[in-house]
Amino acid sequence: MLETLRAGIASYGTPEEVLTDNGSQYITWRGMEKARGQGLNRVSGVVRDIATDGIGEADGAADVVLLFNLLHCEDAGALLRESWRVLRAGGRIGAVHWRSDVPAPRGPELAIRPHPEAIERWLIEAGFTILVPPKVLQPYHFGLVGSKQPEAT
């Protein structure tokens, strides 16, 4: 599932530090455990509802923001604008979500899952340039990658 995102963010090499925010303590812990198992020792986890409380980082602090299965929230535009705020100029955003055209063993109801075209439009409305348009990530997801372009001087 991550190959599309990996291609879109590959130019950043090995990150100095990775911060993971998740509303689930268990998922945050498991993600950190898996990362450390792969030798990524500078991973820190924060349990936070970023759709409600924001990402919690300074303006321009992040090279990459990854949003997995979050954009069915009440205000996806606000979450994307918050992602824009914390990304540095030239930073990338990767979004993965459950497909709405196939039933899956888990995830939100099909009726509230956003379509790939909607997420692409929301990214553009938030100011991102699309680098990797929506691609199906078999069997249950799709993903796309955008960039926060440096401001013209």
Describe the structure.
- Helix content is 29%, strand content 29%.
- It has helices at residues 3-9, 25-37, 50-53, 76-86, 116-125, and strands at 18-22, 43-47, 62-68, 87-98, 129-137, 141-147.
- The strands form two sheets. A four-stranded mixed beta sheet has the order 3-4-6-5. The chain has a two-stranded parallel sheet with strand order 1-2.
- The radius of gyration is 15 Å and the shape is globular.
Properties at a glance:
alpha/beta, four-stranded mixed beta sheet, disordered N terminus, 5 helices, 153 residues, two-stranded parallel sheet
Summarize the structure.
The chain has 153 residues and is of the alpha/beta class. Helix content is 29%, strand content 29%. Strand 5 and strand 6 (141-147) form a beta hairpin.
Spans of at least 5 consecutive residues whose pLDDT stays below 50 are 1-12
Helices and strands, in order, run as HEHEHEHEHEE
Strand portion: 25-35%
Strand order within the widest beta sheet? 3-4-6-5
- Total beta strand runs: 6
Overall pLDDT metric: 82
Helix coverage percent: 25-40%
Molecular shape? globular
How far apart are the termini? 37 Å
Supply the number of helical segments: 5
Blueprint (SSEs and pairs):
Elements: H1 3-9, E1 18-22, H2 25-37, E2 43-47, H3 50-53, E3 62-68, H4 76-86, E4 87-98, H5 116-125, E5 129-137, E6 141-147
Parallel strand pairs: 1-2, 3-4
Antiparallel strand pairs: 4-6, 5-6
